[in-house]
Write a sequence for this structure.
């Protein structure tokens, strides 16, 4: 099992290095196939590890292997440790499974682009980084993987490097994530100071229970999670990240990287349970985000941005689950979300690919009539998103919402927020579906639609989307809490939930959620499908994304710029220019003053001699 | 010891030295200054020899001979310079000769 | 013999180059050969080194002024071995760069570069205070000539600034050395005891703070770095600056425990200011060299934070970060030089941009070095920074918060620099003729990058037991 884990981790790294080192010597297709095959190889290795693990009995399933000591200083030692336990294997399977589907999809999507090789090297780097994150056996390696996925995200968002908007978006994403890295690092310093270790077992055993230190540690970790998962207040980078190619949005900004924050909370749940204030804060932030993102998604006109805000919203649900302590539910939703959100992005990608890269939904309107396959898979994904039985989202989302009832009045507030969010989800998801995939094609769509050899897109794009479609339909059947819950049982030794709903609550919540979701769909249909009601004018608050971008621009960028400029003018210029000018000035002045004595008159020199002699004579006679 | 007491020699030497020093400080002609420097040197010689006679060793007299040698060399150089300056019609006044200023 | 050989080989090589009747091409290749031989000798020394021992190794001692107890005493500790290693590797890269680029008056140039190598190795291996001072000053002469003859248009101002600043510090240090040595009765660092004099401590600290540099004594930084030839800037920032930090580490801290304790907060404040100030100025710098030089200022501040943290975490992190930064900043300056050559500019961002198109090698190298320089997690620079901040956190949480904020600033300024050169619209100075990195340039750059990546896989090579491998009194910091 250990070997399989190492193979799973290192195959994508080898692929990234190989593609980079080969440079321009290999044709583009080879780079694409190398990347795809290594990711699939990693998936196979993950399955082998899983099979091996399943064969053992529950208490013995986790295993940590260390290859060498990565860093040490005095009494502190941090090794290159891989931890393969029930939680990490679930993440490994999701990352490599959905990852290989998406990388395979991009073989077709990116075909013919100028610098495909670079793209696939970056994709492999990302898969490696994400695996390092979930397999890391100590918090230092988790932070390392954390930063590396941020780097891969920067490289991939900025893939279209001539576009200024893409570069700006890439930098913004990286800097916000760097902020999260910094808060996490501070949490790690606290842990080192109080426990002297960073491996999970040591940290969970040694960290304080309650009190300011525990809260600070959890807060630091939460800061990193919020940045990575694009929750309020560090969420503004995610919509801009849509500048990257669509497979990137699918893999990184829907299925895997943005869910890393949820993984962190679930993995470090003892630390959060020691600081329940912070855990509640996490749930609160998740609830606020899911509402805000839902409202903003109602008025977006770019197909990818709608799906991006939807991602933000769904991760809000996962944060609610993780924050309240319903860890298996959060992980289950993470899994189904990877399926249906990946599906939605990739299906949107087929449409975008077919209509000369256009992303505006008004221009793409009605293209569903020209692309029936895409329409049906998109419908499947949307139904899964809204959570209609028997699609995947139904099982996972409702479990989280129901679990909120287990946490007193605070949980009840969140419960209401989640149901409101479900309503919004219905509206925005089907607004998108009805506009783009139903009705008559717009003039733009008709004119610019290009079928690919008679089909909607290259084969690699179609079969992968189909696979995700199937998963979105049946994937949810893995767990239905009142009746069967293998996932919860599997994860129990590692993540015992502290919030669970009763069966009645589950049934009632599911019913309510379906009704509310259907109501949302109905509203969307009346406005966009049947066009019975005129669409209300968009509220500027929603359109301007609640003015977060403007706020951050003023606080961080402009302030920083001002301070830097101030330093330049007030400190640096006087300091450098000043210091040398001062030195030379003083020396010059002194020498000018002293040179008055050198006047060239012999008699004045003689006078000086005589005077000096007289003084010396007196001194000698006096001192004697 | 025969002859005048030592104080006469010391006083004479002092007066000669003072004369020479005053000459160097107050006269403007470089030739006269050179002359005055010679007077100072001779006053030192006189004192050296007188003291050597008093104390009985010959160190002072030997030193006086070295001084004479040095004085002679220096007069050669100085006189040569002054004669050369005179030949070129440079005005022989130290207050006017101040090109070597800092 | 090893340590003396490491000093003697480049010096003798310089003499050889000064007299050998060869053309400038062959002189350059001879110089390159000698610097590679030096690297080889260092590798042999490393192979013979016993890494589990904390004593001074590979040392030679010969008496010089026996009545003052001054001697030729050179040797290496575990951390000095790595410092010598980074010196010879970086100097080899810079010498080969000079050969590749083709400098006129090659004879003088290569002789000076080799002399500089010998002097810097001497600084890191000297175990006698006067000998240390001699080598410290000896570094300055080749630098002065290299900048003054082969530098940019304003080089005279640069040389004067550099010399005045350095010499002021050095004279203070000389006074402190003399007093300290006479007090102790010997100048041999391995036999000296400690002192509690504040003035001696400050004399040393000021000299080293000028060299590192640290705020507010960094006034020589901008003009000197901008006007030097790129490989000399690489040496200045990468190694000569580290000599200042080495001085703090080897002399100022171990011999003055009480003054360290008294002045700790002041020095930590200055280091934090350097860190933040340097990062902010790098963010606004209008040219590539400006970004790298202010980043050097910031990193020097970070390393001093680690040194004065007073525990093994900070100290080991500082040692690791010294080696890291030497490699990173010299790479950055060499790359700056390569970009400047191709575009005929001085690296001003307003004239650059879009260089990544059609130049994959250049883009990859700049990207890799850039992200390592901003300490992306998993890199060796991250490891060093993490240890330093973890260590200084135990001294006070504020320092670590400032350091963490600087991590974010580093991301901002480095990404800005990378994008300004590589991305977006093609700049006005970038023409189609500007080639991708040629084989020769890759041969200079790639070995350094490989070192960095290797260190990223195993930073423990340098960080483990770095502090325990120090002379006695080191690990007994006053808290």
């Amino acid at each position: 099992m250990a070997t399989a884990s190492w193979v799973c981790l290192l195959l994508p790294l080898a692929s990234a290095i190989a593609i980079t080192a080969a440079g321009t010597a290999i044709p583009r297709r080879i780079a694409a196939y190398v990347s795809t095959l290594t990711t699939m190889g990693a998936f196979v290795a993950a399955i082998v590890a899983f099979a091996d693990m399943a064969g053992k009995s529950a208490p013995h399933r986790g295993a940590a292997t260390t290859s060498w000591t990565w860093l040490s200083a005095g009494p502190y030692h941090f090794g290159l440790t891989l931890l393969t336990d029930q939680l990490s294997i679930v993440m490994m399977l999701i990352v490599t499974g959905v990852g290989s589907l998406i990388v395979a999809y991009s073989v077709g999507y990116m075909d013919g682009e100028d610098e495909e090789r670079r793209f696939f090297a970056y994709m492999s780097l990302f898969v490696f980084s994400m695996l390092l994150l979930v397999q890391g056996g100590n918090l230092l390696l988790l932070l390392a993987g954390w930063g590396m996925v941020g780097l891969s995200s920067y490289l991939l968002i900025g893939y279209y490097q001539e576009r200024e908007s893409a570069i700006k978006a890439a930098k913004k994403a990286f800097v916000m994530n760097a902020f999260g890295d910094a808060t996490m690092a501070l949490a790690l310093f606290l842990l080192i100071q109080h426990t002297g270790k960073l491996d999970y077992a040591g940290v969970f055993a040694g960290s304080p229970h309650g009190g300011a230190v525990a809260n600070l540690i959890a807060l630091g970790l939460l800061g990193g999670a919020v940045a990575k998962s694009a929750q309020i207040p560090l969420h503004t980078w995610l919509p801009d990240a849509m500048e990257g190619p669509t497979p990137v949005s699918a893999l990184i900004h829907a299925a895997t990287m943005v869910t890393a924050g949820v993984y962190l909370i679930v993995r470090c749940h003892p630390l959060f349970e020691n600081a329940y204030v912070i855990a509640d804060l996490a749930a609160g932030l998740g609830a606020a985000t899911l509402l805000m993102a839902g409202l903003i998604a109602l008025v977006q006109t770019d197909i990818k941005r709608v799906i991006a805000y939807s991602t933000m919203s769904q991760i809000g649900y996962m944060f609610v689950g993780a924050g309240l302590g319903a860890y298996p539910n959060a992980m289950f939703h993470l899994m189904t979300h990877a399926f249906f959100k990946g599906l939605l992005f990739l299906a949107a990608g087929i449409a975008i690919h077919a209509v000369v890269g256009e992303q505006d939904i008004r221009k793409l309107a009605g293209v569903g009539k020209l692309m029936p396959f895409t329409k049906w898979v998109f419908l499947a994904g949307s139904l899964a998103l809204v959570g209609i039985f028997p699609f995947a989202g139904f099982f996972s989302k409702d479990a989280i919402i129901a679990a909120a009832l287990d946490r007193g009045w605070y949980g009840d507030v969140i419960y209401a927020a989640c149901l409101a969010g479900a309503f919004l989800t219905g509206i925005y998801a089907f607004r998108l579906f009805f506009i783009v995939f139903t009705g008559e094609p717009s003039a733009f769509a008709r004119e610019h639609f290009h079928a690919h050899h008679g089909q909607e897109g290259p084969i690699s794009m179609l079969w992968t989307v189909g696979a995700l479609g199937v998963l979105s339909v049946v994937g949810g059947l893995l767990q239905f809490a009142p009746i069967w819950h293998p996932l919860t049982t599997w994860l129990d030794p590692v993540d015992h939930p502290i919030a669970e709903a009763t069966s009645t609550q589950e049934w009632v919540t599911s019913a309510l959620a379906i009704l509310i979701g259907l109501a949302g769909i109905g509203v969307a249909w009346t406005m966009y499908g049947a066009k019975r009601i005129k669409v209300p004018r968009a509220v500027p608050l929603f359109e301007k994304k609640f003015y977060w971008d403007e706020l951050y621009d003023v606080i961080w960028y402009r302030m920083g710029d001002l301070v830097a400029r101030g330093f330049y003018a007030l400190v640096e210029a006087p300091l450098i220019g000043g210091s040398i000018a001062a030195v030379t000035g003083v020396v010059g002045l002194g020498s000018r003053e002293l040179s008055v004595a050198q006047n060239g008159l012999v008699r004045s020199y003689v006078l000086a001699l005589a005077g000096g002699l007289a003084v010396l004579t007196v001194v000698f006679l006096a001192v004697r | 010891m025969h002859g005048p007491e030592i104080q006469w020699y010391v006083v004479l030497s002092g007066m000669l030295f003072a004369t020479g020093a005053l000459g160097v400080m107050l006269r403007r002609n470089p030739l006269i200054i050179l002359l005055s420097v010679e007077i100072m040197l001779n006053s030192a010689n006189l004192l050296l020899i007188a003291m050597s006679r008093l104390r009985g060793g010959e160190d002072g007299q030997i030193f006086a001979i070295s001084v004479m040698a040095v004085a002679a060399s220096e007069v050669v150089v100085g006189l040569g310079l002054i004669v050369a300056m005179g030949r070129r019609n440079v005005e022989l006044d130290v207050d006017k000769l101040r090109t070597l200023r800092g | 013999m090893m340590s003396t050989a490491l000093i003697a080989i480049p010096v003798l090589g310089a003499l050889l180059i000064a007299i050998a009747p060869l053309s400038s091409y062959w002189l350059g290749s001879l110089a390159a050969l000698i610097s590679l031989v030096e690297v080889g000798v260092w590798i042999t020394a490393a192979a013979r080194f016993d890494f589990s021992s904390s004593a001074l190794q590979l040392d030679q001692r010969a008496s010089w002024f026996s009545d003052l107890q001054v001697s030729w005493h050179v040797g290496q500790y575990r951390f000095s071995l790595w410092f010598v290693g980074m010196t010879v590797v970086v100097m080899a890269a810079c010498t080969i760069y000079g050969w590749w680029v083709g400098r006129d008056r090659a004879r003088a140039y290569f002789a000076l570069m080799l002399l500089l190598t010998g002097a810097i190795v001497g600084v890191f291996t000297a175990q006698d205070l006067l000998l240390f001072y001699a080598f410290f000053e000896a570094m300055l002469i080749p630098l002065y000539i290299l900048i003054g003859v082969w530098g940019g248009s304003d080089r005279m101002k640069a040389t004067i600034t550099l010399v005045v600043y350095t010499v002021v510090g050095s004279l203070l240090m000389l006074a402190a050395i003399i007093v300290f040595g006479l007090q102790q009765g010997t100048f041999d660092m391995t036999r000296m005891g400690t002192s509690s004099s504040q003035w001696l401590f400050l004399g040393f600290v000021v000299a080293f703070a000028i060299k590192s540099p640290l705020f507010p004594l960094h006034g020589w930084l901008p003009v000197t770095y901008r006007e030097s030839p790129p490989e000399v800037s690489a040496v200045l920032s990468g190694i000569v600056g580290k000599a200042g930090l080495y001085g703090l580490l080897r002399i100022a801290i171990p011999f003055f425990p009480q003054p360290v304790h008294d002045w700790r907060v002041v020095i930590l404040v200055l280091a934090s200011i350097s860190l933040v100030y340097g990062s902010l100025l790098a963010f606004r710098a209008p040219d590539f060299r400006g970004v790298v030089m202010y980043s050097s200022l910031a990193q020097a501040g970070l390393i001093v934070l680690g040194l004065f943290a007073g525990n093994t975490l900070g100290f080991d992190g500082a040692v690791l970060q010294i080696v890291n930064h030497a490699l990173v900043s010299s790479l950055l300056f060499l790359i700056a030089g390569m970009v400047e050559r191709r575009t005929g500019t001085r690296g001003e961002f307003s004239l650059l941009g879009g260089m990544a198109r059609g130049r994959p090698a250049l883009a990859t190298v700049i990207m890799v070095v850039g992200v390592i320089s901003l300490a992306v997690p998993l890199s060796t620079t991250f490891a060093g920074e993490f240890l330093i901040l973890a260590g200084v956190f135990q001294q006070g949480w504020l320092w670590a918060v400032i350091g963490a904020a600087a991590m974010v600033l580093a991301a901002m300024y480095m990404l800005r620099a990378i994008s300004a050169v590589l991305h977006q619209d093609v700049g006005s100075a970038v023409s189609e003729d500007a080639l991708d990195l040629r084989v020769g340039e890759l041969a200079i750059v790639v070995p350094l990058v490989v070192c960095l990546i290797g260190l990223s896989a195993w930073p423990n090579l340098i960080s483990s037991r770095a502090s325990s491998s120090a002379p006695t009194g080191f690990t007994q910091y006053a808290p």
In short: Chain A is about 70% helix and 5% strand. The beta strands of chain A are 63-73, 76-84. The longest helix of chain A spans residues 548-594. Chain A touches chain C through 64 residues (CB under 8 Å).
